[in-house]
Design goal:
The chain is about 40% helix and about 15% strand. It has a seven-stranded parallel beta sheet, sandwiched between helices. Strands 2-1-3-4-5 form a five-stranded parallel beta sheet, with helices on both faces. It has helices at about 15-20, 35-45, 60-65, 85-90, 100-115, 120-130, 155-170, 185-190, 195-205, 225-230, 245-255, 275, 295-310, 325; strands at about 5-10, 25-30, 50, 70-75, 95, 150-155, 175, 190-195, 205-210, 235, 260-265, 280-285. It folds into two domains: about 5-100 and about 295-325, NAD(P)-binding Rossmann-like Domain (Rossmann fold, 3-Layer(aba) Sandwich); about 100-285, NAD(P)-binding Rossmann-like Domain (Rossmann fold, 3-Layer(aba) Sandwich). The protein contains 14 helices and twelve strands. The structure holds glyoxylic acid.
């Protein structure tokens, strides 16, 4: 029997390709450079499935040009690269890779918060530049994590992981804002109190963004929101580029309207706004919050198992639009 044909849109673990090859005729991008839109469409001809990594845009145009496509499996928990409504309308299943990255990503969110508040990279650059000649009482004085108030916007699984680290590990007061309130049991477990967004911005010492990107929450943090924050506050974005207005943030950081920012995601990444690059009070990382080998392997395996689950057994593990299964 001929195997279904699939495309792996970016270089991934050899063991993932091996796993997929047991079930599919696999065409794999051997490199880290994403396919252009036209190349993606060309390579998707005759393919029943595609393994994507979060940067391949699957929209109505691409779907119309790829009539054989039945499933797009994202090796990411976020899926703003998918037009889910268009996929559902065409009967194309979308899957993502939740849960397996929760703790690793929460670790990183906390690491970025600490690096930002305690000026880790700025002080390291100073040392490496040979500028450290003497002790000074306020040299690279930052802001405390322990005992401070952390405001989390987006209280899904990763937000909850960060809340637990802050509340249980560092004695932080945790407040949060989310589309919907957590259950009382979860709030108690995370020691987190629900507040309105404006109150969170006014009172938090550290604001951490972990919400999914949707067109409605583009620029959740812009000029007006930054004005509400304390001048001593830290802002951390491990969610998605576009949730923060990066130009407005650069202006606020330059004017010391807020103290510092830690950013793992950017509008238009992998490009980074030039004004952010010029600032010292911002820690910048290249979208690596889930990047440990075991976690990235688990994410790749889950994406592969979604392709196998659906195309071979009719049962994907983590569907985003399960309506397609019922149709
Ligand atoms: C990473 O950003 C992801 O969505 O998994």
């Amino acid at each position: 029997m001929t195997k279904p044909r699939i495309l792996v849109a970016r270089e991934v673990f050899p063991e993932t390709i091996e796993r997929l090859s047991q079930h599919f005729d696999v065409e794999a991008n051997p490199g880290a450079t994403p396919f252009t839109r036209d190349e993606l469409i060309t390579r998707l001809q005759g393919k029943a499935g595609v393994f994507t990594t979060g940067s391949e845009q699957i929209n109505a145009d691409v779907l119309a040009a790829c009539p054989d496509l039945k499933i797009c499996a994202n090796m990411a928990v976020g899926y703003n690269n998918f037009d889910v409504a268009a996929m559902t309308a065409r009967g194309v299943l979308a899957t993502n890779a939740p849960d397996v990255l929760t703790e690793t990503t929460a670790d990183f969110g906390f690491a970025l918060l600490m690096a930002t508040a305690r000026r880790l990279t700025e002080s390291e650059h100073y040392l490496r530049a040979g500028k450290w000649n003497s002790w000074s009482y306020d040299m690279f004085a930052g802001s405390d994590i322990h005992g401070s108030t952390m405001g989390i916007i987006g209280m899904g699984r990763i937000g909850q992981g960060i809340a637990r680290r802050g509340a249980h590990g560092f004695g932080m007061k945790v407040i949060y804002h989310n589309r919907s309130r957590l259950s009382p049991a979860l709030e108690a477990e995370c020691k987190a109190t629900y507040v309105a967004k404006e109150e969170l911005l006014r009172t938090a010492d550290h604001v951490v963004l972990v919400l999914p990107f949707t067109p409605e929450n583009r620029h959740t943090i812009g000029e007006a929101e930054l004005k509400l924050m304390k001048p001593t506050a830290t802002l951390v974005n491990i969610a998605r580029g576009g949730i923060v207005d990066d130009a407005a943030l650069a202006r606020a950081l330059a004017a010391r309207q807020i103290s510092a920012a830690g950013l793992d995601v950017f509008e238009g990444e992998p490009k980074v706004h030039a004004d952010l690059l010029a600032l010292s009070n911002v820690v910048l990382t290249p979208h690596i919050a889930s990047a440990t080998i075991p976690t990235r392997l688990a994410m790749a395996t889950l994406a592969a198992d979604n392709l196998i689950g659906y195309l071979v057994h009719g049962k994907p593990l983590t569907p985003i639009n399960p309506e397609v299964l019922a149709a």
